[in-house]
Design brief:
The protein has helices spanning 14-33, 65-74, and strands at residues 2-6, 43-51, 58-60, 79-89. The protein has a four-stranded antiparallel β-sheet with strand order 1-4-2-3, covered by helices on one side. It has 98 residues and is an alpha+beta fold. The chain has one domain (2-89).
């Protein structure tokens, strides 16, 4: 997903617009995780970039994307750019304690 979102709407509060963006991101992640994995992989990894424009994005972990969206929206831009890419990956196994 590579998308620009407006952060202001004339009939909605800015906080509700931001909540709608977060909801759409969560729906996209759930939809991507339901896809079948290629052979030899056991999970989907996500590379995420968030910023006010495509040129001014920062790389963010998927677990921190909600906070990154809040931080960008607090800066006061009119739009928000999000890029999420799903990449097949392998889970890391935890080392056994001695």
């Amino acid at each position: 997903m590579k998308k620009n979102f407006p952060l202001h709407h004339p009939r909605k509060a800015d906080a509700r617009v931001l909540d709608a963006i977060k909801h759409e991101v969560r729906k996209y992640v759930q939809r991507e995780r339901r896809k079948t994995l290629p052979e030899g992989f056991d999970t989907w990894n996500f590379s995420c970039r968030v910023g006010p424009t495509e040129d001014a994005t920062t790389t963010v972990a998927l677990t921190n994307i909600s906070g990154a969206l809040d931080q960008v929206a607090a800066g006061g831009p009119d739009h928000l750019f999000i890029e999420l890419r799903s990449v097949p990956g392998l889970r890391r196994s935890a080392p056994f304690p001695l």
